[in-house]
Specification:
- With 216 residues, this protein is α+β, with helices and mostly antiparallel strands.
- The protein has a domain at 92-209: Immunoglobulin-like (Sandwich), CATH 2.60.40.
- 31% of the residues lie in helices and 28% in strands.
- The strands form 2 sheets. The chain has a 4-stranded antiparallel beta sheet, with no helix packed on it. The protein has a 4-stranded antiparallel beta sheet with strand order 4-3-6-7, with no helix packed on it.
- The radius of gyration is 22 Å and the shape is elongated.
- This is Phopsphatidylinositol 3-kinase.
- GO terms for molecular function: kinase activity; neurexin family protein binding; phosphatidylinositol binding.
- InterPro entries: C2_dom, C2_domain_sf, PX_dom_sf.
- Pfam families: C2.
């Protein structure tokens, strides 16, 4: 527990909750909780984006989305039902590939015409890459987040120092996501590319259309 407190901090203690003063205590604690959440999401990426934080908050989002959809159905409000759906997929992404000095180099250049979020805002985008099949997800690589942009430029290199014979048996699995600190990251689309079909000794630079894929 001391390690968790060191990483995430803790809320002030000393207030005892009883049956008669639950509301008073809750109102008193609300500013402290808000400050704790602000501090948490302003922490370093390894803390703010940790599996523990995501595991805690993601079920809350799913519960809220389901409740919103159910309420909209009960009220017969089609617009509210539509607004609760995830963003439509679309756009394209430009990447380059080359095998050089015993390393597969995947350069993520730009994306174009990405959809907005359900509330109409530009997405906070990042790209995630795997070499599939990969049950243990050891080949997972991802870019930094480019904030509030439907046409983001990443210009980031992801590398795999692996034998070319191994790489040629893999499928490059590329997905693009919109990051949200308080909600589940939104899937914006992706594509797959069998690496056996490409001459990796030569650099290839190409736009790829984003579509539906198995989420990873």
């Amino acid at each position: 527990m001391s390690v968790l407190n060191f990483l995430f901090g803790s809320l002030p203690s000393g207030i005892h909750v009883g049956r008669s003063n639950v509301k008073v205590v809750a109102e008193r604690r609300l500013p402290e909780i808000r400050q704790f959440l602000i501090s948490l999401f302003n922490s370093a990426d390894e803390i703010a984006h940790s599996d523990l934080v995501y595991t805690f908050f993601h079920p809350l989002l799913r519960d809220q989305q389901e409740a919103d959809i159910h309420a909209a159905k009960v009220k017969g409000n089609p617009a509210a039902i539509e607004d609760s759906q995830p963003p439509q997929l679309g756009g394209k992404i430009k990447i380059s590939l080359q095998y050089h000095r015993d390393t597969l180099i995947v350069m993520i250049h730009h994306a174009l015409s990405l959809p907005t979020t359900p509330n109409g805002q530009p997405p906070n985008t990042y790209v995630k890459v795997y070499l599939k099949p990969d049950g243990s997800k050891t080949t997972k690589r991802k870019t930094k987040v480019v904030r509030k942009n439907c046409n983001p430029s990443f210009m980031e290199t992801l590398e795999y120092r692996l034998p070319i014979e191994f790489i040629q048996k893999k499928v490059l699995h590329v997905t693009i996501w919109s990051h949200d600190s308080l909600q589940e990251n939104a899937f914006l689309g992706g594509f797959e590319l069998p690496l056996a079909e490409i001459d990796l000794r030569q650099e290839t630079l190409q736009w790829h259309q984003l579509g539906y894929l198995t989420r990873s």
